[in-house]
């Protein structure tokens, strides 16, 4: 009786959800919470459209676009980092993770500049409903960016330690980071673009 050898290319592919199931629960929970924030924002916007439009004119869309591009670049770096980690090019994956993290730090600095400019112009949390939402949504998002940077730090530690390098940790970090970027795109659209 002859044995049949099956090569790797002939084996059926098994569906793979990247990362850890617990991270996906956390991501879905955050998406639900932010979804509620977005719905409440739109209800208030519909109730007082002129107030929101007048206040929105005081935002600098160029800063919003810059922050969007910075976070999109960070997502690209993190996606490439996962690809490099899967190919076992850990040095490249680590460099790309650092670049993604640097973009996250740039986002925080740009947002701090924008906030300080708004406060200097007299637009604070208590100015009106629009600015209450502006500071709340961007503030909660900023917290998530900071948490994401901490998670990317854990990913960098994983990639830098030859005894660790657990792929599910790298994928979990990327999953969280992409969620943070997705949330910003919606926040950008609501606060800066939607009229």
CATH superfamily: Cytochrome c oxidase, subunit III, four-helix bundle
Tally the helices: what do you get?
A: 6
Per the principal axes of the C-alpha atoms, what is the gross shape?
Answer: elongated
Work out the helicity level: over 70%
Which spans of ≥5 residues are poorly predicted at pLDDT below 50?
none
> Structural class given helices, strands, pairing?
mainly alpha
How many β strands by DSSP?
0
N-to-C CA distance: 74 Å
Instruction: Look at the structure and give the mean pLDDT.
Output: 90
Using only C-alpha atoms, the radius of gyration works out to 21 Å
CATH architecture: Up-down Bundle
What is the third-level CATH name, the topology? Four Helix Bundle (Hemerythrin (Met), subunit A)
Give the C-level CATH assignment: Mainly Alpha
Major sheet summary line: none
Strand content: under 5%
Element order: H for helix, E for strand: HHHHHH
Question: How many domain modules?
Answer: 1
Description of the structure:
- It holds the Pfam family COX3.
- It is found in: Cell membrane; Membrane.
- The chain crosses the membrane at residues 23-47, 59-79, 91-113, 133-155, 176-194.
- With 195 residues, this protein is mostly helical.
- It has one domain (36-193): Four Helix Bundle (Hemerythrin (Met), subunit A), CATH 1.20.120.80.
- It contains 6 helices and no strands.
- It has helices at residues 21-47, 49-56, 61-86, 90-120, 129-160, 167-193.
- Helix 3 (61-86) packs antiparallel against helix 4 and helix 5 runs antiparallel to helix 6.
- The relative contact order is 0.16.
């Amino acid at each position: 009786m002859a044995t049949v050898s099956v090569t790797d290319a002939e084996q059926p592919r098994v569906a793979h959800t990247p990362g850890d199931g617990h991270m996906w629960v956390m991501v879905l929970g955050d998406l639900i919470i932010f979804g509620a924030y977005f719905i409440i924002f739109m209800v208030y916007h519909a109730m007082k459209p002129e107030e929101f439009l007048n206040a929105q004119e005081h935002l600098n869309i160029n800063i919003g676009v810059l922050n969007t591009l910075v976070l999109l670049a960070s997502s690209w770096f993190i996606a490439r980092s996962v690809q490099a980690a899967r190919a076992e090019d850990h040095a490249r994956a680590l460099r790309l993770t650092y670049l993604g993290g640097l973009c996250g730090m740039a986002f925080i600095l740009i947002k701090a500049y924008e906030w300080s400019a708004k406060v200097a112009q007299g637009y604070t949390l208590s100015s009106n409903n629009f600015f209450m939402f502006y500071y709340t949504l961007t503030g909660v998002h900023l917290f998530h960016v900071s948490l994401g940077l901490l998670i990317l730090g854990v990913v960098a530690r994983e990639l830098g330690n030859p005894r660790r390098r657990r792929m599910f940790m790298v994928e979990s970090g990327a999953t969280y980071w992409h969620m943070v970027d997705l949330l910003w795109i919606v926040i950008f659209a609501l606060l800066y673009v939607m009229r």
